[in-house]
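Checklist before submission:
- one chain only
- standard amino acids only
- sequence pasted in full

Submission:
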Amino acid sequence: MPAIRSTLARRGIAAAVALPLLALAACSYGSESKDDSSKAKVAAGSKKIDGLDSVKIGYFGNLTHATALVANQKGYFQKELGATQAKYQIFNAGPSEIEALNSGSIDIGWIGPSPAINGYTKSAGKNLRIIGGSASGGVKLVVDPKKIKSLKDVKGKKIATPQLGNTQDVAFLNWAAEQGWKVDPQSGKGDVSVVRTDNKITPDAFKSGSIDGAWVPEPTASKLVAEGGKVLLDERDLWPDKKFVITNIIVSQKFLKEHPKAVEAVLKASVDTNKWINANPDEAKAAANKQLEADSGKALPADVLDPAWKSIQVTDDPLASTLDTEADHAVKAGLLEKPTLTGIYDLTLLNKVLKAEGQSTVDDAGLGVK
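Returned file contents:
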């Protein structure tokens, strides 16, 4: 099985223009969002940060956004923001979150690498910055073991991905190309049929036999396994050190410039949350599931939650070199024109927080603000 090859060749190349049909959304669950500020509690005697009444935080109702789920559930955001109220908006897809960031409906968001890249390039580098990492891993190729018994058997089959051009779609197209198979990126037709299917309905499509497998994030992957699917490939195995970015933290450049103390407070909450998650994995898993239930009305059953949780690693490191590689995969797939990603990162405040916590600082792979 060929390893994914990194080319890191886009730095300093002419400005990017995303293809008109490209809709990049990591871990898509549709396009709806909901405001959830009912649980924000302000501690008595605390003060507002940067004079703000609130900070609006966006994330997906998805285990790959575990940091935000747990930080909300355990009150880490509110603790650091003091009398500035933490407000939450839950998204189902990356494009709607980018739109919310651009319109000011949210200030800071947890989001996948592909929509972050697309949002940055479409605005010519003017709308957002990636200010921290959040999660690695949590993506698998799950197949019907009666139809697909080996990697070579994937050829000629129908494989679902969440959305045209989303993070998993790009990864699957790149992997298929590594096998020597040809697939039209727009139609999904070729040596493998790529069926773009919303994660909400992928398990039903799998049960009905209309797809033979899926390259999907957690918890969808574990839902398919619970329905009789088999994990044929864990995407972690395709990356150096088994690490690749699946969730970043982004902020609007305007908010970052005008309210750095508030941004620092959210990053402090994120770092503290990740430290607690790693020290208390079982309690953290329960907290994330409790927040998922609060956000969606339904908790995950143990046979889905447990394996899904094990495949995700929370991290403060944005794993910048892997984002650069993922952008290269989108270019090779024909879904994105060559982008200039220099300036997409500003890790200044994160590294300030990490230093204060006695932790190692993280690197922007040469893609930071100059």
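Reviewer check: The chain is about 35% helix and 20% strand.
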